[in-house]
Task: structure prediction
Amino acid sequence: MAVSRVDGRDKVTGQARYAAEHPADALLYGVVVSGTITKGRIAAIDARKALAVPGVIEVITHENRPRIRSFDLFYKDMTAPGGSPFRPLYDDKIHSSGQPVALVVAATFEAARYASSLVEIAYEAEAHETCLLDHLERSHKPSRLKAGYTPPPEPKGFADEVWDSALVKMEGDYYSGVEHHNPLEMFASTVVRGVDGHLTIYDKTQSSQNSRWYVSHVFGLSKDKVTVRNPYVGGAFGSGLRPQYQLALAVMAALKLERSVRVVLTRQQMFSFGHRPETVQRVRLGARPDGTLTAIIHEALAETSRNEDYVEAVVNWSGQLYACEHIRLGYKLVALDRFSPIDMRAPGAAHGVHALEVAMDELSYELTMDPLALRLRNYADLDPTDGLPYSTKELRACYEQGAARFGWHQRPGEVRSMREGHELIGWGMASGMWDAMQMFARASAVLHADGNLVVSSAATDIGTGTYTAMCIIAADAMGMPLERVRFQLGDSTLPVAPVEGGSSHVATVGSAVQGVCGKLQKSLFKLARKMPDSPFAKARFEDAEFAGGALRLRAHPGHALPLAAIVAFDGAGRLEEKYMMLPNVLKQKNYLRATHSAVFVEVRVDEAFGTVRVTRVVSAIAAGRIINAKAARSQIIGGVVWGIGQALHEETQSDDRLGRFMNHNLGEYQVPVNADIHDIDVVFVQEDDRIVSRLGAKGVGEIGQVGVAAAVCNAIYHATGRRVRSTPMTPDKVM
Ligand code: MOS
Result:
């Protein structure tokens, strides 16, 4: 199916309300004061001038905040890495640049904003360390692990010895700088306080239940005192996987002042919490002259904060993508005086698979072999690390269909062999891989006597199309027209759903939706059998089908009962079911479950300026059954655009003397604009994976980005003969 999003009209007409847009009576406005040192302590705070501004009600600091819990445990949201989470306005300690140090609360936003500039803070600064490259020697193995994180596997074979004596080999060091998510919607929380003290919080988050859990724990509020809603989220890309500090500050103000409060961060403040970590990698590949890989060694060093071990699986895919007898993977962290990094679209894979795929390209030139032929030569039919089968893996079809669409077979092997005017032309390709995950979720469904179906789960739609996908799954299961189905999400009181992350929502929540519809079908069938003159009186469930908004006999489609009539017969006027979807872990653990891609790219490089245009991209994707072809294609296009940003534009620059990010705005933090984007062609190859989910779906989001930057890098090499081993590949590096 390919349909436009069901929430599209609400979005384009401004009916969809985001976290900072929900109204409340007598609302107060909080503006965050950001610290100006990177490490040390607050010596004194003078809020007198700020408090003198008309309309200002309070300046909340660590000295006068309401009571909050002190133990780490209470600050651990569902996605927290190991260690001690940051506690907003907890004490006088400053841990990182831009840390919130006060919240000015006023009757108007303008008064709060002006007064925030008048809060005087004296600091005692200490020396900080924010430069990864200066501190590589004090790396450590992650010890405080995160739930769900898989460390690199034990070495297989004798990778170092085999690499040393390999007939053909390459070695490369790769670097990727810090990146920030920059969703269009700023982080915001509107806390609406009811007369009974109940807090209804509109929060920008990738999980209403995660934020609800966090607020309850930090402030010691019982579960029924707090409801979190996030019906619409204006992008997040991972930055909303953890509750951000504006949530805690807004709740603090609401509790202290017993009022409704809104706190919205500024674009600059959006650079003061999690980011994609700066990462240094070394890849070594050994091969026989025919291209058979004999050794893969991939080691990564990434930054984390002093207080937490933020981990991501940077190197793991290097043991999963190509058949090889000798593999050694390593991953270490360096703790810096920065805020903890956080997952950002395809965390780990975005730069880990990048390094591997650039290294494979480098090896192909050492071998004088076509880069695609090299990948096919080493195609893995079993998990190279532990010999498990893939649940499904149509990567070969991605290579074939992508190459055909791109015209790859016409590619000259020589570098600098294509040009037009002042531009050198190059073609490059790369593989991509991302985990296909399924988590635990519940769903409920109510079929009304008017024939409308409402399905609910505390899922999230960060712009990815959850509303629409769930409506399609429910309509499909019930044989109902799409317009008759409504999906409710974004409310912590709805049935349990996980965070929307890891491209797992369709396989997870979608399976719960399918499951609850299955229960509804059974109940409808039972009821139908009892109806007077029922055509189903003697039928078995298997003899019936749900189609055209009715229950009918497969053998006699004319013998049908409209679903609305069956519900009406029940007397209650509604039929409700609940379902709990538990992944079949015992079955799943016997398979390597992943999505795959093959990306083909054409670049044109201005020979004089070193500017790069990505003029053509073909992305062939294997991601299980596709639920909504239109939304899935948009997800992949978005991923490709992000990959182009990773390749050519995005980097947050750190001034390590100050320990600060310097380009903390959209003027200087470069992302691709329309002029940077040309032809993007998306191909979905046939795949149906009943091990990842009963739906056959895996999930499309992050896989769209993985491998794109590597394909651009490889195309730049083909065009120019210049290998750029760090991202972004700016003109100064290209020429
Ligand atoms: Mo995504 S980084 O799993 O929100």
